[in-house]
Structures are given as C-alpha cells and as structure tokens.
Amino acid sequence: MLKILFIDSSNDGHHIPYLKGIVDSQKKFTSFFILPKGKYNLPGHVFEYKESGSEFNLISYLTWLKFIKKIYKKINPDIICFLYGDVFYKRFGIGLKCFSKNCRVIIIFHQFRERPFIRNSLKRIFRHIEVGIVHTRYNLKELINIGIKNVQQIEYPQLYPYKSLDINEAREKLGLPKERIILAAMGATSYYKGLDILLEALTLSKGKFDLLIAGKLTDFNKDFINKYNSKIKGNIYILNGPLSDEDFHLAISASNLIVLPYRKVFDGASGPLIEAVWADKPVIGSDSKSLGELIKREKIGLTFKSDDSIDLSNVIDESIHCYSKFSNGINQYKTKISKINFQQEFFNLFIK
Q1: How many helices (H) and strands (E) does the chain have?
Q2: Is the separation of the CB atoms in 291 and 262 below 8 Å?
Q3: CATH architecture designation of domain 167-336
C-alpha cells in the first residue's frame, strides 16, 4: 500500500478543508501528515509542527525542513505531497532535492504573485520535483511558456458542505432587507483582494446597491469601511469572521452577485468564486490573469479592468440588467468543480 506524507505549513482558512478534500476518499493509501499544532480529524497519523505560517523567515524555513527530514526518514514514504507550494518561492526550493532522490515529490501551487525572481525560482523548484499542480489553465500556460513541462492542472473544487437556501430566507436569518440588490465581498479583507477598489466603485455607481462584507477584517478594518457609509447610495453590512461554514454560505445565499475585485498581483484560483458558482450566483471579477480568463471562458459573470474603480462601477451598473444570463455557464462549470472529480484526479495522480 502506498505511503503518502501530506505537508502543510498552515491550518487556517481553506487549508484543512482542502486537505480533507484530497484524503477523505483515498482509502487505498496509508496517509501521514505534518501540520501546525491543532485539532484534526484526519485518516492517518499527524506529526505536529510548532509553527504555522504561509511565509517563514529563513531560519524558520530551514528548521521546518529539518523537522520534515526527520519524519521522512522515520516513515520512508513513497510520495511527499506539499499542499502549499507558495512557501517555497522566496527560498528557491532549497532543501527539496534531498527528498526527490528517493521518493516522488508533488507540490500544489495555489497562486503566483508578481515578484522579480519568481520565474527563476519556479524553474529551480520544478527541477527537483516530479510534478507541480496548479488550479487554473492560465497558470498552466504560464509555466509551460517558461519551459516547465512537469505541471498539471486540477480544477479547484467546491469543498464545503452546502445547503441551498432561498435568498429571502438567508436574508431573514442575517437581518438583511429583502427588496434590495446586495453585492457580497467574501473572505478576509486582504489588500490584494481589493475591497477598497470595490468601495470606491460604489461611490461612483449610479445604482443603489447594498454591500455585504463577509469575512475576517484584516488589511481593511471596520473604521476604514465605515468611512464609506456616507459616500455610497446603499448600505454596508459587515459579517466579521472568521466565519463558520453556515455563515459563509448564508452570506452567499443572501446576495445577488459576488464581487471579486482582486488586484493584478493576484494570479490563482479563488475560493469565493467556487462557492459562488456552487450557490448559483454570478460573479464580477477583475479581468487580469487567471481570474479574468476563467470568468470569461466559463461564462459565469462579468469582468472589469483590474484595479480600475471607474470601470468596476460601470460593470456593477450593467450587471442588474444581465446577471440572469449566466445560469447556463454556471451549471456547466459546477460539474467541473465537484469534489468527486477533484478526488479522482488526485487518486489517478498518486497511482501513476
């Protein structure tokens, strides 16, 4: 029976649901895990590491690798699967070579950031692994275009248990008005997600839209958001996180459209986009890179010029006349993001 060692440097946000999405149906493998300290319900032994972080400093990174090597020697896995390859960018994949000599190494990359050294770093990383996984066709093409061949795309899946709710029922539970058009910005308010771009766009919009902000307030806090209460025609509602699965899906169900005003620096899969599609909600997203390419190709919503509040305001105004036309694209894309398909693709990858 194959022994697979799954490794992640973080356990917040989507990290554990994503991991469970891979391993919950993999009954033919013996699974081991290296994860930050926490409570887990996983089908295998968990080796807990003292630190958590998406970007270690150099000393923390080397200490983390040393811990991994110790476990690696102890269990002698057939496959090592790093679930968050983004942690390797700054370090040019230092330390990966020692694992690839005796077992298969798979790394999953969730997004690429604009950094001057990224191409050289990625080329070096991919030389020391069997295959890298990306979630968008755009990222796949990016890597192939710089000469990387050992890369495969697996569509980012819908991961969370979802109970379909009528829009009015969801609004009633959240105390939101039933008769208004509500846009939603989902997830943590990180700078790259562009909440400020959306808020500025609403000050320019001709329509009267309410905005629901559902997620952990991080780079843009409540004080920043409240400054816009008097500037936009509608109301702003905040559902501060981290959110439970139920509250996350209530927020999506209560909304007419999900807005993804991500900045150009972002290039990868979007969890809120996936959950929006699963709930039959069209999206408005920036036209840049992976996000824009996916929205246009799958016909699941509208796009605007990235980082441009004026264009976003125009698209928001346009959306009230056409968001119902995306139902066919949404239904077709839902078949591609099912958890069953996701698990089967990883199963096929592991048994190669």
Answers
A1: 14, 13
A2: yes
A3: 3-Layer(aba) Sandwich (3.40)
Question: Do the first three CATH levels of 2-157+339-350 and 167-336 match, i.e. the same topology?
Answer: yes
Q: Which amino acid is at 338?
A: S
Of residues 277, 183, 301, the one with CA closest to residue 232: 183
What whole-number distance in Å separates Cα of residue 190 and Cα of residue 218? 6
More confident of the two residues 102 and 35: 35
How many Å apart are CA 4 and CA 106, to the nearest integer?
Answer: 10
Tokens representing 267?
A: 């290039």
pTM over the 0.85 mark: yes
What's the start-to-end Cα distance of the chain, in Å?
A: 13
Contacts of 79 (CB under 8 A, 6+ apart): 2, 3, 4, 5, 103, 104, 105, 106, 350
Rounded to whole angstroms, how far apart are CA atoms 258 and 158? 16
What is the C-alpha to C-alpha distance for residues 32 and 42, in angstroms, rounded to an integer?
9
Q: Which residue is listed with tokens 């050289």? A: 120
252-294 pLDDT tens trace: 999 999 999 999 988 888 999 999 999 999 999 999 999 999 9
H helical segments located in the chain:
15-23, 58-75, 97-100, 118-127, 137-145, 167-174, 195-204, 222-226, 245-253, 271-278, 289-298, 309-319, 327-336, 339-350
Q: Which two tokens stand for residue 295?
A: 């929205």
How many C-beta atoms lie closer than 10 Å to residue 351's C-beta?
A: 9
Q: CATH assignment of 2-157+339-350?
A: 3.40.50.2000
Q: Where are the domains of the chain?
A: 2-157+339-350, 167-336
Residue 85 per-residue DSSP state: G
